[in-house]
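Q: My labmate handed me this sequence with no annotations at all. I'd like to see what the chain might look like in three dimensions before we decide whether it's worth expressing. Could you predict it?
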Amino acid sequence: MADVERRLAALEAQVAELLDRSRGRPEPAAEVPGGTFWALDGLKQRLPEGSGGAVLYTGAVRFGDEHYDWQYGRTVDAVLDADWTELAGTLTALAHPVRLRLLCEILGGRRGTAELAEIEGLGTSGQLHHHLRQLTAAGWLRSAGRGRYAVPAERVVPLLAILTAARR
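A: Here is what I predict for the chain of 168 residues:
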């Protein structure tokens, strides 16, 4: 548990630093080549003339020996034209404290149902399996065989982006 808490604290510190940068607080140029808004500036250069804009999220994440690089973007028009109601199930799966805790623990290395069942506050074995099924059905988890689960590589950065965006 201490390892997961340490990782979360490190991630929260990184997120806080990124938030400080996004609020326009100065940062040494040596740390971020190209300036504070280098990703935003690159996105703007790629937008077609007269475009309504775009949304981009990207991340480079390490958990022990595992490394995840991810980038995804969509035009504002594509986001606004999509059927947002189709996203309700995916978002609902995250809207429970036990499920968020499970995702954190699984990212932290606890992947087996027996390991997860040992965590206080997650409920009964039946409740644990219910939450694991909900996360799997929504695509936030994948069965890794023999009662083991993993967050799919393509969902790690999006999950962290959603959690970062949810902070006030």
